[in-house]
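Hi F.,

I've been meaning to write this up properly since the lab meeting, where we talked about keeping a consistent format for the predictions we share between groups. The idea is simple: the sequence comes first, exactly as it goes in, then the structure tokens exactly as they come out, then a line or two of notes. No screenshots and no reformatting. I'm using this chain as the first example so we have something concrete to point to.
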Amino acid sequence: MSADEPRSPLELLEALAVQEVQITPGLAHLEIYTLHGLLTVLWHGPRDARDVVVTCGGGMGSVLGPADGLYHALGCRLADAHGIATMRVGYRKPNDLSRCVHDVAAAADLASRSGARGFVVIGHSFGGAVAIQAATVLGAHCHGVVTLATQSAGCEHASELGDTPLLLLHGTDDEILPAETSTVVQMLAGHGEVVLLPGAGHLLTQAATELRERLSVWIPERFAAAGG
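Output, unedited:
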């Protein structure tokens, strides 16, 4: 590769080494060592899946997600029921927005090398901004964005999502970010569906079952619509 040739998000990580362990037949644990931190990916489902969900943790990072491990639960459900893969991204440096967006883009780049052609990105709290920015990077390859109790900071360019489907879920009793924050992001995007979850706090524990059921339907529908 010449010095002037553009490099992909994965190449820009300048990985020093990669380790991988197959935890179960349907779940692999990857660690990518870089000079700027360790990028962790828990990868559910078939490695050659065309449809892939990428999850974004909050400001402290998280590969489990809110609502009693929502990301893990979705990874198992979507792989078993639909053959959809899920990449749970553990950031190199949580709360560093640009670096976290790069991490998510690099994970999607890695999946694309195995056959992925479409993505849905999910983010909780700080991760909502990561998800929206990553979706703008993925462009036409992103078929849906889900935010969970999102912040609005970092979502200023949400209009660049174009007509990418956007689902904003927020608890009415969020003690950190009021539910109106999701409405602000909806306004910035110019579209999107805001769903309020009665009685749910910032970690959305009270809405764990509803989130699993809703997203187990919404996500496959987005991939199906894109495939059509």
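Notes:
The first strand starts at residue 17 and ends at 24.
DSSP finds six helices and nine strands in the chain.

If this format works for you, I'll send the rest the same way.

G.
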